[in-house]
Specification:
By secondary structure, the protein is mainly α. The chain contains 29 helices and 5 strands. Helix 3 packs across helix 4, helix 20 runs parallel beside helix 22 and helix 21 runs parallel beside helix 23. The protein is elongated, with a radius of gyration of 33 Å. The N and C termini lie far apart (92 Å).
Length: 693
């Protein structure tokens, strides 16, 4: 018996259509349920990724084509019989009798087992193969009934969508995708349900996730190819799918505490989607980076809360994982961390903390390494339109996602790395930070963050040329003078709450000075050897115009920034400024030790009563001073750091800067070499600048 079926739906009786109460179609045209030939070709549904397998057995032939599906014979059952079976089940279901309907659901779920048949020596060995072929015909036949598969058939559709199609043969995968297209074409609201079915597979990464009994193992690459061929085909047929998909991508993104394996698989699939769906390119990157920032912050907070012993355990777990090749076996997510704390089996909390921190670091590391790799081709010519467009996207993500997030530690290095590829890009980043820092309508916390990012970029950027350092210093100095003029009229003394933008900017300039003092020099005496930084000490140096005056005017103003700015940075600036004969501020620092910030503070805590009630140490004024966070301190992720190691300036100790600390500096250098594997390094301002106190 030979029957040919086209993709057009069969004519149904009015009674059947009325009983099914079909949902509104999503396509305007009803000429074809599966789209035009052009759409199919664009989606590559019939390409090499889903080639037909070798012909199974005689009399069991299913020919698949994009617009026509021909089923000639399947074992002893004809296509007409299967269609009649489906029609009967649907008709009885409409009448309230679900016996045949439930059998149909079970059949279409693809979960039938053939083990009992295989164990019976008297059973025809071709039965399992015939049944697998029958499932294809069930799907083909069910496509003809798509207009009837409305709300009353939710259970049946759920069963079909739960069918494990990725682990079957290529032919089945094609038929399954065609069924999804037919379903959405006839039942528009099913679109969300179908897209969820596909997105939920984005976290699958191991063959066991899609394996089907009695089928050959399907590789991860083959399964992903099928998944994305299906999604691309649906997007080509249904333009309305893109905004729906955009929303679903965020809702289906793995939670932060889910396994590294799920995160990496989901991100990998999103990046594959990005290649063939340019309309969602920006949204995909925004989603990945926003979730990356959250992991970054949580990871940093966890590490900050750890003592040295736990931090060492995390480092050991990371090292063990890298030595084992970061394998993705089912137990690999736990093996490394477990090996670290195996001697302390009772300390479950410690094990969990180490495992969580290790997984968070590896998530960050892998995803950032992938993003660096993806963006790199766009910056092959840093002055090209392509590079500028890619950098504009990064700037948007920086401004909207990274900058407002406190404690982000690594995500921002995307902008740090690519922002140094040309002076045009350097100017674009610095201009963005300056605009945010000095726009009065911006929240104060954003203004301060922008100042910190700008200062850290200019100070740490190894490829930021000296003339730009001078220019940025002068621009910041100009704005600093404007703020000082504005604030001094009402200033009674240093107050971080009232004048925070001024102090943030002053601290930024001192930070830049500490790292880039050589670039702020106009000329030096002949005795100075530019290759020997210690030769600059105690010399009569000529500084760039206005540099000294800018710093002097503001340091000795009524706002008294040296009392409010981070003591770590203030002390290092004072030391360098003194030995380079730039400025002598030690008398002011000594005077500030006798000055209490609380007498100038505004707000509820100015009297100190509330602090006494909370048992605060009234002699500790650190809560009234700026922190020393600068976001481009040395990058610590072990794998992806290869992209940025040549991008940032390491802190350079100056021999002889403080003679009594030479031995301490030598010991510190040795210690830094031993701690390369540690991941909880404090900010560079704590470890590097602060060690010269």
């Amino acid at each position: 018996m030979s029957i040919t079926m086209t993709t057009a739906a069969p004519q149904l009786s009015r009674a059947a259509v009325k009983a099914a109460t079909p949902l509104k179609p999503i396509l305007k045209s009803s000429s074809s349920l599966l789209g035009t030939r052009r759409s199919s070709d664009e989606a590559d549904l019939d390409n090499n990724t889903m080639e037909n397998p070798q012909s199974p057995r005689k009399r069991q032939r299913v020919e698949f084509d994009l617009n026509n599906i021909e089923v000639h014979e399947i074992g002893a059952r004809s296509v007409g019989e299967i269609k009649q079976e489906i029609r009967k089940a649907l008709d009885r279901h409409d009448q309230g009798d679900d016996e045949d309907y439930d059998i149909l659901k079970d059949t279409l779920s693809g979960k039938q087992s053939y083990d009992d048949d295989d164990d019976d020596e008297d059973v025809d060995p071709t039965i399992p193969e015939r049944r697998r072929q029958e499932l294809k015909v069930y799907l083909v036949s069910l496509s003809s009934f798509s207009p009837r598969l409305g709300r009353s058939c939710d259970g049946l559709i759920k069963s079909v969508l739960q069918c494990q199609w990725l682990g079957r043969d290529d032919q089945f995968a094609k038929i399954y995708v065609q069924f999804l297209a037919a379903l959405v074409s006839a039942q528009g609201p099913r679109l969300t349900q179908v897209l969820i079915c596909i997105l939920e597979r984005f976290t699958d990464s191991r063959p066991s996730d899609w394996a089907v009994p009695n089928y050959p193992t399907v590789s991860r690459e083959a399964a992903q190819q099928r998944l994305h061929v299906a999604l691309r085909y649906l997007l080509s047929l249904f333009p309305a799918a893109k905004p729906v998909l955009e929303q679903l991508m965020a809702t289906k993104y793995p939670f932060h505490d889910e396994s590294k394996r799920m995160h990496l698989a989901y991100v990998d699939n999103l990046l594959r989607l990005r290649k063939y769906c340019p309309d969602l390119k920006t949204e995909i990157m925004d989603l990945i980076i926003s979730r990356l920032v959250k992991i970054d912050v949580e990871m940093q907070m966890d590490l900050d809360d750890m003592d040295d012993r736990l931090a060492a355990m995390v480092a050991m777990a990371l090292k063990s994982s890298r030595e084992n090749g970061n394998q993705d076996e089912e137990d690999s997510d736990e093996s490394d961390a477990e090996s670290v704390v195996s001697e302390e089996e009772d300390e479950d909390d410690e094990y969990t903390r180490v495992k969580t921190a290790k997984e968070s670091i590896e998530k960050m590391d892998y995803i950032l390494d992938t993003l660096f790799d993806i963006y790199t081709p766009s910056f092959a010519d840093p002055d090209s339109d392509e590079a500028l467009e890619a950098f504009e996207d990064l700037l948007s993500e920086f401004s909207n996602l990274i900058l407002p997030t406190i404690k982000s530690r690594h995500t921002q290095f995307l902008i740090f790395h690519f922002g140094q590829r040309s002076e045009k890009l350097i100017d674009a980043f610095c201009g963005t930070c300056i605009n945010i820092a000095f726009e009065s309508q911006r929240p104060l916390i954003l203004q301060q963050a922008a100042s910190a990012y700008l200062a850290s970029f200019v100070a740490r950027g190894a490829h930021v040329p000296g003339h730009i350092v001078v220019k940025i210093f002068e621009v910041l100095g100009f704005h600093l003078d404007q703020m000082r003029t504005l604030y001094e009229t009402s200033c009674r003394g240093p107050d971080v709450r009232r004048y925070a933008p001024f102090y943030a900017l002053m601290q930024a300039l001192m930070y830049i000075f500490c790292f880039r003092w050589q670039d702020l020099i106009r000329s030096v005496p002949d005795e100075v050897d530019k290759d020997d930084i210690s030769s600059y000490l105690d010399q009569e140096i000529e500084w760039e115009s206005e540099i000294k005056d800018i710093m002097r005017r503001n340091i000795y103003s009524k706002l008294n920034p040296l009392k409010v700015c981070s003591p770590v940075i203030v002390n290092q600036f004072a030391k360098l400024a003194h030995r380079f004969r730039f400025m002598y501020v030690y008398p002011l620092i000594e005077a500030n030790k006798r000055l209490r910030l609380s007498q100038f503070s505004t707000g509820a805590y100015s009297s100190g009563g509330a602090l006494r009630d909370l048992s605060f140490d009234m002699n500790d004024e650190s809560w009234q001073q700026l922190g020393s966070f600068f976001p481009f301190d040395p990058y610590q992720l072990p794998v992806s750091k290869r992209w940025v190691e040549q991008d940032y300036l390491q802190w350079r100790h100056i021999p002889g800067l403080n003679q009594e600390e030479l031995d301490d500096d030598s010991d510190e250098d040795e210690q830094e070499g031993e701690n390369d594997e540690e991941v909880d390094e404090d900010t560079a301002t704590d470890d590097e600048v602060g060690n010269d106190e």
